């Protein structure tokens, strides 16, 4: 049984963000790192048909799908070591994607149309070590400073049960829990349907849907090319790249809980019941 079709929702009171490929350009970096090693051993560059199956799946960059395609003449352990060396070189160069800095800055001070503060949290499959490398560039570190430390739920976070990464809903539910546990005095607890998940990967969309939250899918153009013809299934969380059962958690086609947007630039706050300050700024200019 999927989610009930909806055309009206309560205003969004919490926005929960994935990181890789959504907020920063790590997908380009992952490709560069893999291609450096593939070229070293005379292999072709990583195609989107394979990369699309790796995105959003914890540990997939060194997993079965990749190695079955690559057929490298080295052990998986050696590949993992060489990949880490490449990541050490390239991850510190990660920078925010278009629209991200403005979106996060505006959400940090936003309220819903009823005047409730909008809260934000991070829910990333990246482990803490990689997170720190990816956000070490000064402009990137400044962008991520909007996420309070306790509201950053990472891939090796002990608060999330091991083996329950995306597409399981646990990381998003934990992110919501961190928000609810630190609400201000008098603030009412936020429900999953009042949350808006921002994701670029297919398993990430599924995880958001399984959590009972609304989802915005912002895929890389290469990923969109692979899954554009199945967009309705992606938005319902019904691609099933990593089968985990519990199909009752999934959405239904065209049920209104998720949608695709090409970029985080010029985000339509009002559509989600969010006042990000544009109206107040405009009114102030007219005084």
UniProtKB/TrEMBL annotation:
Gene3D superfamilies: HAD superfamily/HAD-like, Putative phosphatase, domain 2. It comes from Coleophoma cylindrospora. This is HAD-like protein. It comes from the Eukaryota. Pfam families: HAD_2 (PF13419). GO terms for molecular function: phosphatase activity. InterPro entries: HAD-like_sf (IPR036412), HAD-SF_hydro_IA (IPR006439), HAD_2 (IPR041492), HAD_sf (IPR023214), PGP-like_dom2 (IPR023198).
């Amino acid at each position: 049984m999927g989610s009930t079709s909806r055309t009206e929702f309560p205003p969004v009171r919490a926005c929960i963000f994935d990181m890789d490929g959504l907020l920063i350009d790590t997908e380009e970096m992952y490709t560069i790192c893999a291609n450096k090693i593939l070229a070293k051993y005379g292999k072709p560059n990583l195609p989107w048909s394979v990369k699309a199956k790796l995105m959003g799946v914890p540990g997939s960059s060194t997993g079965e799908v990749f190695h079955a395609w690559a057929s490298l003449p080295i052990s998986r352990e050696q590949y993992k070591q060489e990949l880490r060396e490449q990541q050490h070189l390239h991850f510190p160069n990660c920078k925010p994607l278009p629209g991200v800095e403005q979106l996060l800055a505006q959400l940090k001070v936003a309220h819903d149309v009823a005047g409730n503060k909008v809260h934000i949290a991070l829910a990333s499959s990246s482990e803490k070590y990689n997170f720190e490398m990816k956000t070490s560039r000064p402009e990137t570190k400044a962008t991520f400073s909007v996420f309070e430390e306790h509201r950053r739920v990472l891939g090796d976070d002990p608060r999330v049960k091991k083996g329950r990464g995306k597409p399981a809903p646990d990381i998003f539910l934990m992110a919501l829990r961190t928000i609810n546990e630190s609400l201000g005095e008098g603030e009412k607890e936020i429900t999953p349907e009042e949350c808006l998940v921002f994701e670029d990967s297919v398993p990430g969309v599924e995880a958001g849907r399984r959590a009972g939250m609304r989802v915005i899918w912002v895929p890389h153009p290469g990923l969109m090319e692979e899954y554009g013809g199945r967009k309705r299934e992606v938005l319902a969380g019904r691609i099933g790249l990593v089968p985990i059962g519990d199909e009752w958690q999934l959405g239904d086609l065209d049920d209104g809980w998720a949608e695709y947007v090409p970029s985080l630039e010029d985000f339509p706050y009002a559509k989600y019941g969010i006042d990000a300050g544009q109206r107040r700024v405009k009114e102030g200019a007219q005084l």
